[in-house]
């Protein structure tokens, strides 16, 4: 299976085989990520983590990313078509992916109470999903729960670099890099998005949480992790040295070992019993 259809929209999908009695890892990519952006081949980080934890894995590209269907009229007026938001992204776009798309994807896959592995936008989606749905555990890498000035500055720099350097890189992973890039930039630099704040939703998370932040992350600070931990006291914070915004690229070995060790310490849920 290399795709799944949600409300008429085809999403790129990849499965990493593993035992059925353990809750699988579900990977949620960053704001400009995709299935292939996690890495390719046997050395891709999701495969390394699945091997280290002895679990199956699922990866998918959200709409507009990777080889998934594009978002129509992505700089046009915001509206709904067939149960999907189209046009310019709205401030609740992460909520839609967390509370509408992901639950339907998991339902179709027959996955109940997964282990969510989210990065950046994907980490925010993981937190929002865990606030409303059953999740065995959640790893949030470089999550955003409110907007920091440094985030806005970094995205402004990405916008300036897009045509010359960033677009060719994105073209390796997205069939339409403009469809991936501009909706992301437009919403994050929209003044109305400065009010984005999901700290209240984090108070409803009951599952174990591992929060990972690179000490050299140019997109966010440790304040994000501290805010989540205040809302969800069961969270464990982990600051990774010599690491920027992408722990799975900058420190894959320590990250893999740390996540595997953390998961091994958790009490089993029904899906994790032999």
Mean pLDDT: 95
Order of helices and strands: EEEHEEEHEHEHHHEHEHH
Structural class: alpha/beta
Low-confidence stretches: none
What is the count of β-strands? Answer: 10
The residue fraction in helices comes out at 25-40%
**Gross morphology:** globular
- What's the Cα radius of gyration? 17 Å
State the end-to-end distance: 26 Å
Can you give a write-up of this model?
The chain is 38% helix and 17% strand. The chain has helices at 45-53, 93-109, 121-132, 149-170, 177-188, 199-202, 223-231, 247-250, 252-265, and strands spanning 3-6, 9-16, 25-28, 57-60, 79-81, 84-86, 115-119, 137-141, 209-214, 236-240. The chain is globular. α1 (45-53) packs parallel to α9 (252-265), α2 (93-109) crosses α3 (121-132) and α4 runs antiparallel to α5 (177-188). β5 and β6 form a beta hairpin. It is α/β, with parallel strands linked by helices and 274 residues long. The strands form 2 sheets. It has an 8-stranded mixed β-sheet, sandwiched between helices. The two termini are 26 Å apart. The longest helix has 22 residues, at 149-170.
Topology:
Blueprint: E1 3-6, E2 9-16, E3 25-28, H1 45-53, E4 57-60, E5 79-81, E6 84-86, H2 93-109, E7 115-119, H3 121-132, E8 137-141, H4 149-170, H5 177-188, H6 199-202, E9 209-214, H7 223-231, E10 236-240, H8 247-250, H9 252-265
Parallel strand pairs: 3-4, 3-7, 7-8, 8-9, 9-10
Antiparallel strand pairs: 1-2, 2-4, 5-6
Keywords:
274 residues, two-stranded antiparallel sheet, alpha/beta, eight-stranded mixed sheet
């Amino acid at each position: 299976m290399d795709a799944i259809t949600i409300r008429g929209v085809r999403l790129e999908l990849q499965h990493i085989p593993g035992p059925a009695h353990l809750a699988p890892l579900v990977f949620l990519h960053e704001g400009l990520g995709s299935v292939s952006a996690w890495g390719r081949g046997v050395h891709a980080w999701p495969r390394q983590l699945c091997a280290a934890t002895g679990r199956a894995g699922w990866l998918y590209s959200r709409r507009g990313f990777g080889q998934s269907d594009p978002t129509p009229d992505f700089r046009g007026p915001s509206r709904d078509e067939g149960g999907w938001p189209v046009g310019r992204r709205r401030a609740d776009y992460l909520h839609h992916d967390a509370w509408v798309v992901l639950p339907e994807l998991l339902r179709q896959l027959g996955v109940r109470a997964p282990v969510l592995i989210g990065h950046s936008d994907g980490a925010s989606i993981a937190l929002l999903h865990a606030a409303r749905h059953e999740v065995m555990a959640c790893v949030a890498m470089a999550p955003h729960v409110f907007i920091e000035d440094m985030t806005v500055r970094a995205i402004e720099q990405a916008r300036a670099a897009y045509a010359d350097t960033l677009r060719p890189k994105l073209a390796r992973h997205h069939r339409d890099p403009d469809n991936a890039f501009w909706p992301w930039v437009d919403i994050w630099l929209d003044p109305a998005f400065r009010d984005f704040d999901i700290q209240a939703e984090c108070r409803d998370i009951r599952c174990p949480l591992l929060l990972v932040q690179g000490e050299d992350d140019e997109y966010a600070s440790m304040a994000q992790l501290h805010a989540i931990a205040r809302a969800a006291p069961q969270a464990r914070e982990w600051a990774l040295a010599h690491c920027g915004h992408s722990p799975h690229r900058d420190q894959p070995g320590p990250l893999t070992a740390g996540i595997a060790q953390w998961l091994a310490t958790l009490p089993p849920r029904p899906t994790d019993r032999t």
